[in-house]
Amino acid sequence: MDQLFNRKYIVQGLFIVIALILLGKLFYIQIISDAAFVSAESNVLRKIYKYPARGAILDRNMKVIVQNEPVYDLMVTPNEVKPFDTLALAQALDITFEDVRKNLKKARGKSSYQATPFLKQISVQSYARLQETLYRFPGFRTQDRTIRHYPDSVGGQLFGYVKEVSPVDIEKSEGFYKPGDYKGKSGLEFSYEETLRGEKGVINTVYDAHNTPQGSYADGKYDVNAVSGERLISGIDMRIQKLGEELMMNKVGAIVAIEPASGEILSLISSPGYDPNLLVGRNQGNNYMEFIVGNPYRPSLVRPIMGYYPPGSSFKPVDALIGLQEGVIDPNTTFFCPHYYQAGNRKIKCEHFDGSISLRRGIARSCNTYFCYVFQKLITKNGMKNQRQTYQEWRDKVAKFGFGSKLDIDMPYERKGYFYTADHYDKIYGKRWGYTNVISQAIGQGEITATPLQMANAMAIIANRGYYLKPHLIKGIGDKNLVKKEYVVKNYVGVDARHFEPVIDGMQDAVNTSWGTAILSRIPDVVLCGKTGTVQNPHGKNHSVFIGFAPRDNPKIAIAVIVENAGYGSTYAAPIASYMIEKYLKGSVSGARAAQVEWMKNQNLLPVLKDKTKAVKLTKADSLLLKKADSTKRVKDSLRIKSATIKQTVTTKPKEFKSVIIDKPVIQK
Amino acid sequence: MQQQQGNRFFFNVDWITVLIYIALCAIGFVNIYASVPPEQTTVFGFSTLYGKQLIYIITGLILGLSILLFDGRLFNVFSPFIYGGTLLLLMAVLVIGNKVAGNQAWIAIGSFKLQPAEFAKFGTALLLARYVGAFNPKFRDVKSIMIAGLIVAAPLLLIMLQPDTGSALVFLAFMFPLYREGLSGYFLLIFLGMIVLFIADFLVPTYILIIIITTIAGLFIYNNRRKQKIIFSTVLVTVFAIGYLFLIKIAYEKVLAPHQRSRIELMLGLKTDNKGAGYNVIQSQIAIGSGQGTGRGFLQGTQTKYGYVPEQSTDFIFSTIGEEWGFMGCSVVIGLYMFLLLRLVNLAERQRSTFSRVYGYSVACILFFHVFINIGMTIGIIPVIGIPLPLISYGGSSLWSFTILLFIFLKLDSNRMGFI
Ligand SMILES: [Zn+2]
């Protein structure tokens, strides 16, 4: 009996063990893991987001150049949907019967009790129509949103575009962005995303197990009102931005205009451009494939900041300035130009037989010989043995003008250009190399490349007589018009102000004297100083380049214009620059020149697409986009269009086309 | 005179147990009140769940106190009749019972619903206690095991026919009083082994289990190779174990209903199902887990308030406790149960009569099975078996049957000095 009495402890022990097991599991799910807590919140909470309006963008004359338009997303909560007249809904939304069924099925796949988009970005007109009948479709509700509108229909690359965030964006933002949010993907929309986007509002509503709303959560303690994005004031002058884009119609190239005193960019044009409104709304994807990816002249390459061009003759003023500062020449130094320059077995041709030529005239006539001598003197000033070091010193001085590095413009994807260091040449030539190996850089050819932005900035430096402010597109952020600190700092280039006058004399002559290279681009009553360039292009016809600033005293605008494959700088680039400057300074292009503007607009200088393989070669961004969507028929179509386009353009120059907006070859059957 | 009589009736009653009983009932009422959707709590009425529960508690208390007025010996004397009566009710429910959720468990008398399975527990406990008390078998022989087994198996099988697997399972609790009275511990081990093999059979391929079992058996036989008797019984056990493995598979496919199968698979983590059979368990665990340390507070549980846990006032009442009172509240409730169970065992041990002791053990173990299975189910360590949490879950039949079960023992205990 006593033995059996002990069994009491076994029974009681079992009770205690089981109780501890229960408490252990409870301890885990209640104290250690918070998974249940999170699930409980998501059970009862539904968030309804209020999307803020993005900030507007104004130009320098306070004209609105980017604004918002209301649109509506039709949301559906699948398990609240009751049988409805599908045809009526399709008609109200102007979509097909099939679309309704397809979209509903898609929404069901995402969530049955959360509201998911049924049809995005319904226009105000369709919304008005829908509003009257919406009560007939339980489970559907509309969600206010805004989309971008660009009143002037120009500046595609400048403004960039806004798009719904991708899973990658969401991941990168560490959860800041939620599916359904929009985000600036390029251009100003991208760089000022944080200012423009505003703050999303949210209303937390508690729902019971039957999905019936039970009022606000915690008396609205966690609700947030939407805050609109802040406005931006840009340095852009929409008048010349628009004029520039029209002038560049049917041409490939870039224009950058800067206000020298402030570094504010007055105009930034990439051609071919496109209407930014194409990348807004429901057809964004299709239009992107058709007009951006589908255009063989690659509008996705933002040429003012990504295009690499040898600076050519426009580089000569920089040579002269460093020569003067280093004392290897003075304003009266002359060299003899027998139609060429020769160093060892290297011969560089000059356009003219200039004879004995001075600095001022050398710049005005763009004498290659003169600047090769300047370069030779600079590199050999410490004797033949120290050329490597003097080259590097020269390179560093040129780099101060902004070549070979990014200027940190407030736009994404800026590139820095090629400008080799002495180390780099060591790799090519070994230790034994001298000025003769790199002489082509004297005239801005050869290994050196620069972006149009860097060229325009070099002009701003000359206009300012020795310094620049970082070129930037936005000069005022928000209602307080904040300016970024780095945009008010003067960056000196190490050349004394007095050395600029002789160089500017030469640039003035280039435009305003009979022996200059750009005399056809004179502007009445304005002293335009400039420099043409005819840049040799290994891939085809020479690029036409003009850089300059105006007026000579107290300059208001510095500019760089590049027209690809257009030949002489004086024929296209210089006139285009002069029209821009005249419009900016005087408000309009006057007299006979007004007709020239129209003539220029009508010039089709689109290069012939010679090589099929080269033409289909896409930029990295393009091909990435293609890859992403390559399963859709749309892409196949656009590829088909493209290859058709290319076949067509192999033999003939693309036809000029009537559309005012898009520079894209027309397909001929 | 009145006073004296009162003293005679309530003399020696273990009031601590009564207090715990009242505390658990009160906890039940509070949490049933919280489990009712908010719009129904504005008016206090006896038509609401908590209103009804209050009636059940009051009548239950009256019932319990009136049991104390009986002469304890009557329960011993009448145990065969009570047992027989409950068996008859169990048979009746199969014929005239109302189907609720596929189970034929209820007899409706007017608006009053009776669940005979609840009352079969104390009927069985009484008869088993009487058998052991009268014959004092030590369960060394097959005959006494058979008789005791029969007493338990008869109601168990009838309840299985309803079918109400959960309530039937509770009858396995009677193994413990029998063990206390001398049944070999091997029966418990075999029982435990069967459960382990049952679970293992789902998680591990059968042939691997067979290899493991035969290897262990082989080693065991090798170690005891001189003892023929051990070799013989080991072989026997091994054969049975392997046969059992196959039996499980067959029974699982042929006998269990699909919803029972999926409950087992869910519990073992073999499949997940957020909407179907797994919904209750997932929602219950979410509610309990979201209570965290100290709970969201009375009437503040969102999962409870907005009805995310189905059957919350009955089988899943523990999820309300977990959400609104947190780990603290859960510990208090489990602590109260443990205190009650350990006390009942201690009380049972102080009885002079075997009848009272066996009955006391039966009460403790039945309560233990209910608590373990119910709470285990709400936190997902046991498959969904629909049995109530004693004294806390909503429902008259369950509350009253536990009251009767408990108060009969309290009466027997108060009479422990006398001879029954
Ligand atoms: Zn010359």
TrEMBL record, chain A:
<dbReference type="InterPro" id="IPR012338">
    <property type="entry name" value="Beta-lactam/transpept-like"/>
</dbReference>
<dbReference type="InterPro" id="IPR005311">
    <property type="entry name" value="PBP_dimer"/>
</dbReference>
<dbReference type="InterPro" id="IPR050515">
    <property type="entry name" value="Beta-lactam/transpept"/>
</dbReference>
<feature type="domain" description="Penicillin-binding protein transpeptidase">
    <location>
        <begin position="253"/>
        <end position="579"/>
    </location>
</feature>
<dbReference type="GO" id="GO:0071555">
    <property type="term" value="P:cell wall organization"/>
</dbReference>
<dbReference type="InterPro" id="IPR001460">
    <property type="entry name" value="PCN-bd_Tpept"/>
</dbReference>
<keyword id="KW-1003">Cell membrane</keyword>
<dbReference type="GO" id="GO:0009002">
    <property type="term" value="F:serine-type D-Ala-D-Ala carboxypeptidase activity"/>
</dbReference>
<keyword id="KW-0378">Hydrolase</keyword>
<feature type="domain" description="Penicillin-binding protein dimerisation">
    <location>
        <begin position="51"/>
        <end position="212"/>
    </location>
</feature>
<dbReference type="InterPro" id="IPR036138">
    <property type="entry name" value="PBP_dimer_sf"/>
</dbReference>
<keyword id="KW-0997">Cell inner membrane</keyword>
<dbReference type="GO" id="GO:0009252">
    <property type="term" value="P:peptidoglycan biosynthetic process"/>
</dbReference>
<keyword id="KW-0573">Peptidoglycan synthesis</keyword>
<keyword id="KW-0121">Carboxypeptidase</keyword>
<keyword id="KW-1133">Transmembrane helix</keyword>
<dbReference type="Pfam" id="PF03717">
    <property type="entry name" value="PBP_dimer"/>
</dbReference>
<keyword id="KW-0133">Cell shape</keyword>
<keyword id="KW-0472">Membrane</keyword>
<dbReference type="GO" id="GO:0006508">
    <property type="term" value="P:proteolysis"/>
</dbReference>
<protein>
    <submittedName>
        <fullName>Penicillin-binding protein 2</fullName>
    </submittedName>
</protein>
<keyword id="KW-0645">Protease</keyword>
UniProtKB/TrEMBL annotation, chain B:
<dbReference type="GO" id="GO:0071555">
    <property type="term" value="P:cell wall organization"/>
</dbReference>
<dbReference type="GO" id="GO:0005886">
    <property type="term" value="C:plasma membrane"/>
</dbReference>
<dbReference type="GO" id="GO:0032153">
    <property type="term" value="C:cell division site"/>
</dbReference>
<feature type="transmembrane region" description="Helical">
    <location>
        <begin position="358"/>
        <end position="385"/>
    </location>
</feature>
<feature type="transmembrane region" description="Helical">
    <location>
        <begin position="325"/>
        <end position="346"/>
    </location>
</feature>
<keyword id="KW-1133">Transmembrane helix</keyword>
<keyword id="KW-0808">Transferase</keyword>
<dbReference type="GO" id="GO:0051301">
    <property type="term" value="P:cell division"/>
</dbReference>
<feature type="transmembrane region" description="Helical">
    <location>
        <begin position="12"/>
        <end position="34"/>
    </location>
</feature>
<feature type="transmembrane region" description="Helical">
    <location>
        <begin position="183"/>
        <end position="200"/>
    </location>
</feature>
<feature type="transmembrane region" description="Helical">
    <location>
        <begin position="77"/>
        <end position="96"/>
    </location>
</feature>
<protein>
    <recommendedName>
        <fullName>Cell wall polymerase</fullName>
    </recommendedName>
</protein>
<feature type="transmembrane region" description="Helical">
    <location>
        <begin position="206"/>
        <end position="223"/>
    </location>
</feature>
<dbReference type="GO" id="GO:0015648">
    <property type="term" value="F:lipid-linked peptidoglycan transporter activity"/>
</dbReference>
<keyword id="KW-0573">Peptidoglycan synthesis</keyword>
<dbReference type="InterPro" id="IPR018365">
    <property type="entry name" value="Cell_cycle_FtsW-rel_CS"/>
</dbReference>
<keyword id="KW-0328">Glycosyltransferase</keyword>
<dbReference type="InterPro" id="IPR001182">
    <property type="entry name" value="FtsW/RodA"/>
</dbReference>
<feature type="transmembrane region" description="Helical">
    <location>
        <begin position="145"/>
        <end position="176"/>
    </location>
</feature>
<keyword id="KW-0133">Cell shape</keyword>
<dbReference type="InterPro" id="IPR011923">
    <property type="entry name" value="RodA/MrdB"/>
</dbReference>
<keyword id="KW-0812">Transmembrane</keyword>
